Amino acid sequence: TSYRSYNNPKNYRYSLGLEGDFGLGGHQFHWDVYTYDSKIKGINTRTGYFNLLKVQNALGPSFMGADGVVRCGSPGQVIDGCVPLNPLAGPGGLTRQMLDYISIDSVERYGSEEKAYVADISGDLAELPGGDLSFAAGVQHRDESGYDSPDAFAYQGYSTDGGVAPNHGSYDLNEAYLEVNAPLLKDLPGIRSLDLDLARRYSDYSNFGGTRNNSFKLTWQPFEDLLVRASYG
Known about the structure:
Blueprint: E1 5-24, E2 27-50, H1 52-59, E3 62-64, E4 70-74, E5 77-78, H2 96-102, E6 103-128, E7 131-150, H3 152-156, E8 167-188, E9 191-205, E10 209-223, E11 226-232
Antiparallel strand pairs: 1-2, 2-6, 3-4, 4-5, 6-7, 7-8, 8-9, 9-10, 10-11
């Protein structure tokens, strides 16, 4: 028998939002608010597995009837549709009929969903020697969930795909971030440009608590054909 996997996922997504621009004190700002819902549903069908209940029938007691045909069970208690299986028959001894009787497809259904509500704002704050000091900030709430459901044969342990129970889970998180770009210097001897980027993100997970993540980046261009970057996060 052969092992093959046929995966058929489908993705459904919708998004709705608003955005705009405004000026304040000689500075320009851009804002947006939006929500989205993204779902993935799929069916994974795998061939080449065996129905252990039928394997038990095929390897169990058998007898040869008066017509010379070997049948599963015993006289008077024939197992209908069963094809006796002899695993020691040697090359060519396993017929297509034997394999068709015990073969089974493993069917797994799975899916995940992500919902989010987001608000962002960005703009310039001040004039530095190298250009505008700009920033971006935002908040976000996300709900994450997923599930995996094997077929009844796998769940009950009657398939060679193994005994796997259905499972599902979910969590949610709230996040806030701030990013700042500071063009420190430009058009000086040995400093065509020198920029500093700072970023900080706080994430609060419902299943294990909060985390803080920082990022620092320095970009230096001494002359047109050379750019040097250093980062730490």
